[in-house]
Design goal:
heterodimer; A: mainly beta; six-stranded mixed sheet; B: 114 residues; mainly beta; four-stranded antiparallel sheet; 0% helix; globular
Chain lengths: 113, 114
């Protein structure tokens, strides 16, 4: 069965700091990878996704993620965070084919002025 | 497109009562998913449907939980009888049915069982 690990439970950064959130998955086959964001009190929204091609994926709001197959990783990055990036971030994976998404437990990001 | 619509947004009920959560997926999406979110366990998949047919309900915690999808535009998740440990946010999501599209989530129903 697939599983997703997000190593950081809570990250606190100052505005303009760089961000990297870790995500590792366990599954030996071809996968689709996603990052979702959940702003306080809101539903999950898709930030970016990878299913093939260039392993460096750019998403909305200046976020990007890099798929490193040899490390089973899909880390999320942003060069300079803003206060409005305060949210919970979820990594998710599904096997190629139409299997359900499996989510990590999430990383809470707090950006302080 | 109005997105995935869930109702109610909030539900407070007494232990032992029946609770019904509702979801309207995006028109044309043929896969529908019910997730439960808690602080302790994160996002858990409860059940999903393809073309209105339940495919995997292994995530449904107990027989007290049941889900139906009578047509392509409506699904319900029912808990009977409800217990305090069922308190959580329940999300419905839909997808066009191809793995790499990802899901569109509804705004969720926050359930509190007292």
């Amino acid at each position: 069965a697939q599983s997703v690990s997000q190593h950081n439970h809570h990250v606190i950064l100052s505005e303009a700091a760089s961000l990297e959130l870790g995500c590792n998955y366990s599954y030996g086959g071809t996968v689709n990878l996603f990052w979702y964001v959940q702003y306080p009190g809101q539903h999950l929204q898709l930030l970016l996704k990878y299913f093939s091609g260039d392993p460096l994926v750019k998403g909305i709001k200046g976020f990007e993620a890099e798929f490193i197959k040899s490390k089973f990783s899909f880390n999320l990055r942003k060069p300079s965070v803003q206060w409005s990036d305060t949210a919970e971030y979820f990594c998710a994976v599904n096997a190629a084919g139409n299997t359900p998404l499996v989510f990590g437990k999430g990383t809470r990001l707090s950006v302080i002025a | 497109d109005a997105g995935v619509i869930q109702s109610p947004r909030h539900e407070v009920t007494e232990m032992g009562q029946e609770v019904t959560l509702r979801c309207k997926p995006i028109s044309g999406h043929n896969s529908l998913f019910w997730y439960r979110q808690t602080m302790m366990r994160g996002l858990e998949l409860l059940i999903y449907f393809n073309n209105n047919v339940p495919i995997d309900d292994s995530g449904m915690p107990e027989d007290r939980f049941s889900a139906k999808m009578p047509n392509a535009s409506f699904s319900t998740l029912k808990i009977q009888p409800s217990e305090p440990r069922d308190s959580a946010v329940y999300f419905c999501a839909s997808s066009p049915g191809t793995a790499h599209y990802g899901y569109t989530f509804g705004s969720g129903t926050r359930l509190t069982v007292v």
